[in-house]
Every structure is written in structure tokens, then in C-alpha cells.
Design a protein that fits this description.
Layout (H helix, E strand, L loop, with lengths): L6 E5 L16 E5 L10 E3 L7 H11 L4 E9 H4 L2 H10 L7 E7 L4 H11 L6 E5 L3 H12 L9 H13 L4 E6 L9 H12 L7 E5 L10 H17 L4 H7 L9 E4 H6 L8 H12 L5 E5 L19 H19 L6 H28 L6 H24 L10 H7 L3 H7 L3
Parallel strand pairs: 3-10, 4-5, 4-7, 5-6, 8-10
Antiparallel strand pairs: 1-2, 7-9, 8-9
Helix pairs in contact: 1-7, 6-16, 8-9, 8-13, 8-14, 11-12, 12-14, 13-14
């Protein structure tokens, strides 16, 4: 079994001399007998290999005849120049059911970055625009909100996504908002179609759809999900077995995926985290603002590959250690907002429980890797969970010293109440 529970048969291809190929992407993976497992709270939409791209897109074109889909593509200047972004643009040319595409460009201080991005997305036509968050016009708008007490001074993916949502909210015809990352190595249009369809088909009734996928090449990836989030949520369930939010998070197969779709109403109502807690923060906002029965998750693709972060065990200010701390403090603050009392003893208990559960997970992953002929660095995994265990208590200390933390960016309902014309002015900044 691979990380998302599906059975696979993996064959090492050979070269002309009959030796095993070493390239991770050279592996041929054939999926057999997809599972039908449904979690207890949210609907899981499996990839049963029975829906063709042509049929999916036909349904999408029919379903979007009277409503538009807005696609948000957060990208940095470096990712914009990488090969995956070019491939994504090429695939989107034929995704004619997408009514509006906004490329939210961040970490791009030079006007040359903006101009190059516009050139790259030119094949998508007038429906695609570049929102340059580092540009002087947008920065001026940010300054107005900051002066009014709205926390927008922290740059990053969260602010880029929030800004793009505001741009799309100014178009009354956009009813569905879709987001995916721009560093997906094996991107295909079918990925996008599966993410969109649950939200727009008239026979379905969902307000939020979260993606999941298998992150496997010649080895298992997704270390933060496998070695931190999954065992940590189990540890939380031991300490707070009646907590519905923890149970809700535990229903997601890949809670840190950067791909999701949601209704216009949620795009307007959700606050947005400005740090690595973005994905978990989004789930907490969905939990607050809609019914659980209107939440689903969808299997996007047989394989999913994008760039990997450094572990950075010796530096908690970057890499996966920074990500782990942001995720954990986001969860702690969400629980505290629900009236859960989190004391020092709770953090100590959670660390001990997490470590034991994570060690059991490593035994399971090692077995999984062995049967599927995957490379598995058991020692490296053990080192990672020990580092993550330190994060469990370190994040507790951060929470205890600052229970509120960096405030989430307020929802667009608040912004539009204070600045009714702000989305319209934002739209005028987009090129």
C-alpha cells in the first residue's frame, strides 16, 4: 500500500544492458483495485480510473454555462521561470471552462518579473491576468489597509491568495474559486477537472473540496504529513477524543495539500493565515463557516510531484521545521479558540504520545516501502520524528507566550465593509 492507501504494483525498468534504471521518474506505476473507503465525516471522491478527461470536461462546460470558475495561481518569480509553470500554462489553454485566471505573483521585486509573467501567460488570452503583489499599486492599497489596522504586512502565499480572492470577488459572475500550486511537475488538465467538478455540477452540493494524492517517486515523500501531522492528530484524539475539529482534520487524507476549491461565499467569509499554517488554517475556517456534510476531498492523480523543502533540523526558522511550528501553533490556537485549555502538561503528554505513535508509523511505512520496492531511509525518518517531537513542545511554548500569534488576514466581508470600493480598485491594478 502507498501513503494514500491504494494498492500498487511497481516495476523497476531496465536499461539496454538489463540493469535497473535509477531515475525516480522512470518508475512505471500501475494502480489496481482502487479502494472505496469513506471517512465518517466528509465525502471522499476516489479516482477509480473510469472517468475520461473528455467526459469530465464535457460535464464542466455544461455546468459552467451560467456561472464562472475563477482559478487562482499563486507563483513566485523563480517558480514562474521553472518548467512546471510553462507546462501548466500549456495545459490551461484548452481548459475553456475556466472563466477567469488570476496569477498572483509574489516574491517578485522587479518590474521585469511582472513583464515576463505577462508574456508567459499571453497564450491564455484576456481571461488571464497578473496580480503583481509586489508592485507599487498593490503595495499602496496594502498600505491603506495596514493604516486602518488590517494586518497585511506579512508577505507570502497567504497574502497572495487572499488578494487574488478579492480580485475575483469583484466579478459577480464568478461563483467557484479554485486554487492550485504552480510547481507541480506532472501537471495535467485532468487534475484541474477533478478539482472543479464536485463544486459546479448541479447534481452535487458541496461548498469546499480539498485535494489529496500520492506523493511517491522511488520513495515516499510528504514527510510533514506522514511523520508529523498524521501521528500528531492521532495523539490529539487520545487527549481530546470528543473534539469534533480534531476528528474533522483527521478525515483528510492530505490536509496540507495546496489544492482546493470553494464557493464564493466561503471565499468571502474565510480568514486567511499568512504563514505555513495556511492549509490547516483554511480547514479551520471551513469548519467554522459551513456544514461538514458540504465538505469533500478528491483524489486528483495517480502521482504528484513538486519541489521539496529542506528539513533544516538545526534551524527552526526555515524549511520543514518552520513549517511544522506554524502548523502546530495554528492547531493549538484553533483549539484554544474553541475553549480547550492547553497547559504545559498537555504539551508534554502530546509529545510523548506523538513520539510513540510516530514510531509505530515508521514501522508501517518501512513495511509499505519494502513490499512496493521503494527506497526507505528508516534512520532519516527516525531523526525527522525526533525533530518534530521537539516542535510539539516548542510550538506549545510559542503558543503559551503569544496565544493570538500573527493574526489571520481578515475576511473580505470586513474589508468591503470598511472599504466598499476596494475590490474594484484592486482590479484596476491588475495587468
Amino acid at each position: 500500500m502507498i501513503a494514500d492507501g491504494r494498492s500498487v504494483k511497481v516495476r523497476r525498468p531496465t536499461n539496454a544492458s538489463g540493469e535497473s534504471a535509477t531515475s525516480p521518474l522512470a518508475y512505471e506505476v500501475r494502480f489496481n483495485m482502487p479502494d472505496f473507503y469513506q471517512h465518517d465525516l466528509i465525502t471522499t471522491i476516489h479516482d477509480l480510473r473510469s472517468g475520461s478527461l473528455e467526459h469530465l470536461e464535457s460535464m464542466l462546460r455544461e455546468s459552467t454555462a451560467k456561472q464562472k470558475i475563477g482559478l487562482v495561481l499563486p507563483v513566485t518569480a523563480s517558480d514562474m521561470r521553472a518548467e512546471p509553470f510553462t507546462q501548466i500554462v500549456d495545459e490551461l489553454i484548452d481548459a475553456d471552462y475556466i472563466g477567469s485566471i488570476v496569477v498572483s505573483l509574489g516574491v517578485a521585486p522587479n518590474v521585469a518579473d511582472f513583464d515576463e509573467t505577462k508574456t508567459k501567460i499571453a497564450p491564455l488570452g484576456d481571461r488571464a491576468k497578473v496580480l503583481w503583489t509586489d508592485g507599487p499599486e498593490v503595495q499602496s492599497l496594502y498600505g491603506e489597509l495596514i493604516d486602518a489596522g488590517i494586518p497585511l504586512s506579512t508577505p507570502g502565499k497567504g497574502r497572495s491568495v487572499w488578494t487574488a480572492f478579492g480580485y475575483l470577488l469583484d466579478d459577480p459572475n464568478v461563483e467557484t474559486f479554485v486554487l492550485h500550486d504552480c510547481d507541480i511537475v506532472d501537471y495535467s488538465r485532468k487534475l484541474l477537472a477533478r478539482l472543479c467538478l464536485p463544486m459546479v455540477h448541479p447534481s452535487l452540493d458541496y461548498e469546499f473540496c480539498k485535494a489529496y494524492y500520492a506523493r511517491v517517486t522511488d520513495r515516499m515523500h510528504g514527510r510533514v504529513v506522514r511523520l508529523l501531522v498524521a501521528p500528531f492528530l492521532r495523539a490529539l484524539m487520545q487527549s481530546f477524543p470528543e473534539n469534533q475539529f480534531v476528528r474533522f482534520l483527521s478525515n483528510f487524507r492530505y490536509p496540507l495539500s495546496g489544492e482546493f476549491s470553494l464557493t464564493r461565499n466561503l471565499a468571502r467569509s474565510n480568514r486567511v493565515a499568512s504563514d505555513w499554517g495556511l492549509e490547516v488554517g483554511t480547514l479551520s475556517e471551513v469548519y467554522r463557516n459551513t456544514s461538514i456534510k458540504r465538505v469533500c476531498q478528491v483524489d486528483l492523480t495517480c502521482m504528484y510531484e513538486h519541489k521539496h523543502q529542506e528539513m533544516s533540523i538545526d534551524d527552526s526558522g526555515r524549511g520543514l521545521m518552520k513549517m511544522a511550528l506554524d502548523i502546530l501553533t495554528t492547531i493549538y490556537r484553533t483549539l484554544a479558540s474553541q475553549g480547550i485549555i492547553l497547559s504545559h502538561s498537555i504539551f508534554v503528554t502530546l509529545r510523548a504520545s506523538f513520539l510513540r505513535i510516530a514510531q509505530d508509523c515508521i514501522r508501517q511505512y518501512a513495511t509499505d516501502a519494502r513490499v512496493n520496492s521503494l527506497t526507505y531511509d528508516r534512520h532519516g525518518e527516525e531523526v525527522a520524528i525526533e525533530a518534530f517531537a521537539q516542535c510539539v513542545t516548542q510550538a506549545g511554548e510559542i503558543f503559551a507566550s503569544d496565544p493570538s500569534g500573527n493574526p489571520a488576514i481578515p475576511n473580505w466581508t470586513r474589508v468591503r465593509a470598511a472599504f466598499p470600493d476596494f475590490p474594484e480598485r484592486l482590479r484596476q491594478c491588475v495587468g
